[in-house]
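Quick check before the chapter quiz. The format below is the same one you will see on the exam, so make sure you can read both the input and the output lines.
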Amino acid sequence: MVTFKLIEVDSNIAVYHYWAENNEQENPDDYGVLAFDKVTKNSEIRKLALGDSWNTISIEERMELREWENQQRKEQGKPPLTEEEWPLPNKPLNVTFSGQMAYVEIKRVFERTGELPKEGRNIWY
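Here is the expected output.
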């Protein structure tokens, strides 16, 4: 689980603090910093939270995910992914676990409502 709080919005960039494993209550100063761009809907981890970690997804693993998604689409009678929807990977992808899950929830709320969530959480287990 990850929890997050909106700290500031400067132009198109929203800055959030996030805590891995709901660690905010026990260790409020052990937050990570995530920046969310409202225009591109991309994120950047500016500081890693205690308990979070960087993970590298290889080009091969990224291709496997893309192929799996295409198989799911085929079974649903949908066309394959376009290059615009999911570009072919040309380099490994470095992501954080908890930070990425905070980003997924922030983006989901923003796309659904057009508003930045003031706070929230994402639970996946």
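If your answer matched, good. The radius of gyration is 16 Å.
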